[in-house]
Automatic annotation (TrEMBL):
Binding-site positions, S-adenosyl-L-methionine: 59, 61, 79, 95, 120
Alphabetical UniProt keywords: Cytoplasm, Methyltransferase, rRNA processing, S-adenosyl-L-methionine, Transferase
Domain Ribosomal RNA methyltransferase FtsJ: residue ranges: 27-203
Species per Swiss-Prot/TrEMBL record: Methylohalomonas lacus
Record-given protein name: Ribosomal RNA large subunit methyltransferase E
Function: Specifically methylates the uridine in position 2552 of 23S rRNA at the 2'-O position of the ribose in the fully assembled 50S ribosomal subunit.
Pfam families associated with the record: FtsJ
Reactions catalysed: uridine(2552) in 23S rRNA + S-adenosyl-L-methionine = 2'-O-methyluridine(2552) in 23S rRNA + S-adenosyl-L-homocysteine + H(+)
Membership in a protein family: Belongs to the class I-like SAM-binding methyltransferase superfamily. RNA methyltransferase RlmE family.
Superkingdom: Bacteria
HAMAP family on file: RNA_methyltr_E (MF_01547)
GO cellular component assignments: cytoplasm
Transmembrane segments: none
Length: 205
């Protein structure tokens, strides 16, 4: 990015009300507000739950969830980027494609699978819409494939995807494994972004 373009992005980003709110609330990213909005509508989180946050860096979703599940809850955050420590959150540094990382998640769960598996994970973007959609869908398939090892029967799965040809097929696949599936576009998600969040409730293995 050229210096002038990067300055333009920075000025726009720092004017963003969600960025300012995130700074005020000590969240590491504005993404926390997308999750908060979905939670407000869907009533996902409550004390005592076990949550697995896939693709969690820098950690604002985990920060939000860690507050919601206390007392008695557990939160595990995983990313291939390092995540700075968060109160009440266990961390795994590694790639979700690596079976050794999945084994570490299972060890952490210790036979008590998650009430919710949540994912805001995104591949490195190329800027080519069709490629980014395909990469996102491939990542989405990898992550839903982790449900048998991580999510309890009856649990919920929330995942970010991109609008596009692959989305409808993905939603249909989720319907085979979840009692209900809905798509949400929170106001905190920029209109210019193709991201949407898909929520599957009631995992039936
Ligand atoms: C948009 S960020 C997540 C933001 C986070 N929800 C928050 O609120 O701070 C997407 C993350 O997905 C992670 N990611 C993508 N593919 C991954 C993979 N295969 N394994 C682990 N992390 C992955 C990226 O490293 C990146 O940190």
């Amino acid at each position: 990015m050229s210096r002038s373009r990067s300055r333009g992005w920075f000025q726009k980003h720092s004017r963003d009300t969600y960025v300012r709110q995130a700074q005020a609330a000590n969240y590491r990213a504005r993404s926390a507000f997308k999750l908060a909005e979905i939670d407000e509508r869907e009533k996902l989180f409550r004390p005592g739950q076990t949550i697995v946050d896939l693709g969690a860096a820098p950690g604002s979703w985990s920060q939000y969830v860690a507050e919601k599940v206390q007392p008695g809850g557990r939160v595990l955050a995983i990313d291939r980027l390092e995540i700075k420590p968060i109160d009440g959150v266990s961390l795994i540094h590694g790639d979700l494609e690596d079976p050794a990382v999945v084994e570490k998640i299972r060890d952490w769960l210790a036979g008590r699978p998650a009430d919710l598996v949540i994912s805001d994970a995104a591949p490195n973007l190329t800027g080519i819409a069709v490629t980014d959609q395909a990469n996102m869908a491939a990542l989405g398939r990898l992550l839903v494939g982790l449900c048998p090892a991580t999510l309890k029967p009856g649990g919920h799965f929330l995942i970010k995807l991109f609008q596009g040809d692959e989305l409808a097929a993905y939603v249909e696949e989720l319907r085979e494994h979840f009692r209900t599936v809905v798509t949400r576009k929170p106001a905190a998600s920029k209109d210019t972004s193709r991201e949407v969040y898909v929520l599957g409730r009631g995992y039936n293995v």
